[in-house]
Design brief:
Layout lengths: L4 H12 L7 E5 L3 H13 L2 E5 L8 H7 L5 E2 L5 H5 L3 E4 L8 H8 L3 E3 L1 H6 L6 E5 L4 H14 L4 E5 L15 E5 L2 H4 L9 E4 L13 H9 L7 E5 L3 H4 L8 E4 L8 E6 L2 E6 L2 E5 L8 H16 L4 H9 L9 E6 L2 E5 L6 H9 L5 E5 L12 H7 E6 L4 H8 L5 E3 L3 H11 L5 E4 L12 H14 L3
Parallel strand pairs: 1-2, 1-4, 2-3, 4-5, 6-8, 6-9, 7-8, 9-10, 10-11, 16-20, 17-18, 17-20, 18-19
Antiparallel strand pairs: 12-13, 13-14, 15-16
Length: 459
């Protein structure tokens, strides 16, 4: 449940010395998260200002219509705005290594995240989900499980609705997807159940190395709730804490609490010795989605959801847009949109789920990742590769002519090349292994451009 304003203010003062009379808050970034923070602070009566490095943040005009008297500094980060602040709430898209932020922290300004503010405002349990890949799928799965179990549930965070905007919901359970950028500036979270699904090379342009990235992910385990651990990921399995209640899941090891076993020739999702449901009834392709389902079952069990409801939700789960989404089957060729695969691990998982070789479209902004990690799976699982985006050359170099490779200027040309290469029975998979912002607004835009180009083939 959500606390009343008096209780919230008391909690904020206890945790962060945030006081309505004395504190001056600077919100850094006027995106969706920044706007949600501003509404939250305004409702509670805090003095605050907003700063954004962009000259014209896209949400600025709409924000001014609601709060026209709010001081807003745009076009760069001005030290003077930071110098008067007692607290800063830094949006996930802004690096904590920005000079003005580093200087403010050195001068004693406290960093608070939107997730901290959220955690200080509720008494209802939180399910917290992070990982390099699969977190949106698992977050949505757990939300659907809670609905099937008759719970009032609110789902958001890094997925969809910003966490603070969920405070308008009358929820018994909150399910949050959390990114490493949210977690690195969060300290008040105490989730009833939490998981790090996996850790693979991602966002190394913002994190020093893979170990540092994993440590930020591990912050989701702060507190005393139930840990859900993936035994198949070496970095995650090291996070196992024998002093805490833990559930483990695995698609490789039967000693896990939630795993896959074959009974009378049929694969089942299992908990202990109990067969929960046949794997064939999960309407999602790929073994990585079986792992996602096991993680969701473990999280749901940790917060008391009944097994029958959870399995009904899984059987009706259709997946997410831009995540292994079948676009069309044209002249025997299946076209699949996995644009949300913005890192190497997601692409590897997608390719690994295929029994036959596919034609892959990949490329974009590699975000500092080592594309050589893609080479083995591409060699084993692809017939050919069509490359797009600014770091296409890095992937081409990593592939080193192990499979035929083609270059395309844009998505329409990539689809056209694939259409000429593909034969009946083939699958063409957009799974870029890279971010999209070098050519597109976001991964959704990239996926939509792919889908539109594919559907034009019907003409």
């Amino acid at each position: 449940m959500i606390m009343d304003n008096i209780a919230i203010l008391k909690s904020l003062e206890e945790h962060f010395n945030l006081d309505v009379q004395r504190s001056k808050v600077l919100v850094v970034g006027l995106g969706q998260t920044g706007v949600s923070v501003a509404h939250y602070l305004y409702k509670l009566g805090f003095k605050f200002a907003i700063t954004d490095s962009r000259d014209k943040p896209p949400l600025k005009e709409a924000f001014f219509e609601v709060m026209p008297d709010t001081p807003i500094f745009t076009g760069g980060f001005d030290d003077s705005a930071f110098s008067v602040a007692t607290h800063i709430v830094v949006s996930p898209g802004v690096s904590l290594m920005e000079k003005s932020i580093v200087k403010a922290i050195a001068n004693g300004v406290k960093v608070v995240s939107d997730i901290d503010l959220f955690a200080c405002s509720i008494t209802a349990p939180i399910v917290a989900i992070t990982g390099s890949n699969g977190k949106s799928t698992v977050t949505t799965m757990v939300g659907e499980m809670a609905k099937a179990a008759g719970k009032k549930v609110a789902v958001g965070g890094n997925l969809g609705i910003p966490a603070l905007d969920l405070l308008t919901k009358d929820a018994e359970l909150f399910v949050l997807e959390l990114s490493s950028f949210q977690l690195e500036r969060t300290c008040a979270l105490n989730a009833a159940a939490a998981t790090v699904l996996n850790v693979s090379a991602d966002h190394l342009d913002r994190h020093d190395d893979l170990e540092s990235y994993a440590k930020e992910k591990q912050r989701t385990f702060r507190g005393n709730g139930v840990l859900v651990i993936n035994l198949d990921d070496s970095l995650v399995s090291r996070m196992l804490n024998t002093e805490r209640c833990c559930y483990t899941f695995s698609i490789k090891h039967k000693e896990a609490d939630f795993y896959i076993d074959t009974l009378d020739g049929t694969d089942y999702l299992m908990q202990g010795k109990e067969a929960l449901m046949p794997l064939v009834e999960l309407p999602l392709e790929g073994r990585h989605n079986a792992a996602n389902a096991l993680a969701a079952l473990a999280l749901g069990t940790a917060v008391g959801l009944d097994k029958t409801s959870m399995c009904l939700a899984l059987k009706g789960f259709k997946g997410l847009e831009h995540r292994m989404q079948k676009v069309a089957k044209i002249r025997g060729v299946t076209w699949v949109n996995d644009s949300k695969a913005t890192n190497i691990g997601a692409c590897v998982a997608a390719l690994d789920g295929y029994d036959s070789k596919v034609i892959l479209i990949a490329g974009g902004d590699a975000k500092g990742a080592d594309m050589n990690e893609l080479a083995p799976i591409i060699k084993n699982k692809t017939k050919s590769v069509v490359l797009i985006g600014k770091d296409a050359s890095l992937i081409k170099e990593a592939i080193n002519e192990s499979v035929p490779t083609y270059s395309a200027k844009n998505m329409e040309e990539a689809v056209s090349i694939c259409a000429k290469l593909a034969e009946g029975g083939d699958s063409v998979l957009l799974s870029p292994a890279c971010a999209s912002l070098d050519q597109y607004k976001n991964y959704q835009d990239r996926g939509n451009q792919f889908s539109k180009a594919v559907l034009r083939l019907l003409a």
